[in-house]
Amino acid sequence: MPLKALDIYKLLPKKNCKECGDPTCLTFAMKLAAGKADLDLCPYLDDKAKSVLGATTRPPIKLVKLGVGERSFSVGEEFVLYRHDKTFYHPPGIMFTVSDTQSDEEIAAVTARVKDETLTRVGAELKFNGTAIVNTTGTVEAYARAVAAVEKTAGLPEVLISDNPQALAAALVLCGSYRPLISAATPENYKQMCALAKQHGCRLVVREPTLEGLAKLTKDCAAEGVSNVVLDLASKSLGDYLSRSTAIRQLAITREVPDLGYPVYLDATAFEDQDAAIALGIVKYASVIVTSPLSQPSAKAALTLRQNIYTDPQKPIQMNPGLYRVGTPGKDAPVLMTVNFSLTYFTLQGYLESTRIPCFMLIVDTEGLSVLTSVAAGKLNESLVRDAIKKFGVENEVSHRKLIIPGYAAPLSGRIEEATSWKVLVGPRDAAEIGDFLVQEWKP
After folding, report:
1. Half-sphere exposure of 259 (CA within 13 A, CB side)
2. Could you tell me if 159 and 48 lie in one domain?
3. Are residues 256 and 118 in the same domain?
4. Domain-embedded: residue 317
5. In terms of domains, do 274 and 394 share one?
6. Inside any domain, residue 384
7. For the domain that residue 215 is a member of, what is the CATH number?
8. Has this prediction a pTM greater than 0.90?
9. Which of 53, 154, 195, 393 could form a disulfide with 115 if both were Cys (CB 3.0 to 4.6 A apart)?
10. Rounded to 5 degrees, what are φ and ψ at 245?
């Protein structure tokens, strides 16, 4: 079990030093307990204390980085069983499969799709993460060709899947410096697989059908010098995966079995209902999900679900404050002020676009709160609006001095007029009525 702050405090040397950030070391102990500080910040800890504290203060699930460069991604380093307890931090990488039975053109088409396909949703660009290359033929030559075809198309994170160590070795000559994930080490071949992983700096999938076997295998791989591993649960059904992945997360975050404190790997192609497997993996702790290329509806569903599950439930989704254009507004275009709660922004933007009336949207920073909530909490006020008009140069964009505010902000209309010297028009409470409002009320 993890130590509490006071337990950690008792183990600290109580030196009056600046390195720990607090003369009494109590702040440092609290940061260690929360996983927000590094033991190396304290130069006075002896090896025994570091050994005890290191096992209890490091993240319960190891952080593993796949790939290099702009499209690399990290998985693991999670702290909770339920996202509403805190949040989930590292979304799973979703990897499309290609096979060495496919032509170079077919492989290039899949990798180009992974590289370029983007779903824009609530201001975020959602993408798939990489390519999993399957050694279906079992031959070295065909596999090396398939990996080379992937490398020609896109510098994306890769999973190399083969039961033939020679095929993996040939593939790693082409891409080993890019931190691919290789699959899979088993009790029978782990020494050979660890040797490949060490030689090329790869991440390693370890596969075993029992939790006890997995824990032993990760320990054996660590003894061989490979600690960047992900766990393949070798599940036979979705129910089996759910049971095992939940058990592993519980044992890892409570630190009851530290040797299971690694990210989880899920091969969705092994199940009859691949879409259901992807959804279950996203919701229940998979960190790397391998799937055949998805149809457009399935792709949108997977990306949307992943975004929802890995959005902090304790923090509203926010837009960046600023002056946004709808269409090509001129000097006489209306200016509509609203808050930076993303749902409010995109709802209003959608209705404004449907009116085909060019206009400006002035988005003010209410820390992601809705209009009604921000008015009630005092986050939306006349000073905020006045400062936003000046900061974003609204006066330089339009020739008039009229500002449309949301209906729920009507109590602030007089104060906003006094603070800004702009004439304030109170818009509708329902964004769906904004079109009729502009037609009837807007006169520059």
Report:
1. 14
2. no
3. yes
4. no
5. no
6. yes
7. 3.20.20.20
8. no
9. 154
10. -65, -35
Number of domains the chain is built from: 3
10 Å Cβ neighbour count for 91? 19
One domain for residues 162 and 205: yes
C-alpha to C-alpha distance for 378 and 390, rounded to whole angstroms: 20
Which tens digits make up the pLDDT trace of 147-188? 999 999 878 999 999 999 999 999 999 997 899 999 999 999
Tokens of 57: 């203060």
Closest CA to 289 of 72, 280, 297, 298: 280
The domain spanning residue 31 has which CATH number?
A: 1.10.15.40
Residues spanned by the domain of 104: 64-309
Q: 204: part of which helix (H) or strand (E)? A: strand 203-207
Nearest to 155 by CA among 134, 129, 181: 129
User: Which of 133, 203, 121, 125 lies closest to 164, judged by CA?
Assistant: 133
The whole-angstrom separation of Cα 220 and Cα 233 is 17
Same domain as 238, residue 371: no
Structural domain contains residue 85: yes
> Is residue 151 one of the residues assigned to a domain?
yes
Segment 365-421, tens digit of pLDDT: 999 999 999 999 999 999 999 999 999 999 999 999 999 999 999 999 999 999 999
Q: How far is residue 71's CA from residue 403's CA, in Å, rounded to a whole number?
A: 42
Helices 26-33 & 47-57, crossing angle to 10 degrees? 50
Both 156 and 252 in one domain: the answer is yes
Contact 133, 146 (CB under 8 A): yes
Q: 328 is written with which tokens? A: 């090509």
Omega into 5 within 30° of 0, i.e. cis?
no
Q: Answer for the pair 206, 231: CB distance below 8 angstroms, yes or no.
A: yes
CA distance 122 to 142: 42
